[in-house]
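== Sequence and structure of one protein ==
=== Format: two labelled lines per protein ===
==== Data for this protein ====
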Amino acid sequence: MKKLFLMCFLFAFVLNGTAQEKLTDQMKKAKASSEKTLQEKEAKAKAEKSKVPLKKDGTPDKRYKTETKSPLKKDGTPDKRFKENKASATGQARSAEGKAKAAANKAEAKAKKEVKERVTNEKAPKNNKDKVTGTYKGKKVYTGPRGGRYYINSNGNKTYISDDK
């Protein structure tokens, strides 16, 4: 008896749950259709104002441009944020010249890069056992035990020469 009562209760509960789902689905569909019709009405109203041909779905056809004046500021001067108010051809030519100069300056700066030096405060020992491997700025270039190249500057300190070139 308890099982029968429980089965009836479960059956009623399941039916009630599916009925509510159907009701919510119907409400969602109705809401979506009302929003769609509202959007179509707004699109038609905009199209009528601008007198632009409409597509089959009722939206304005963007291939046909409407004549609009270029936007102006409050004081009546053209607003440069908009494309039709941008700089003239002479301004664009000057811009191209400036970009060419900038590229030339970058190339020149790369060419000017010299060998980097690093000065240390340690004094060079008098009895230097490192090998002399050449000259740099009129000074003898030594190679240390771990391969570092340096010369002794006028203060008697080691100045290392970088290999970044």
Q: What stands out?
A: Helices lie at 2-50, 89-112. The CA atoms of residues 37 and 70 lie 33 Å apart.
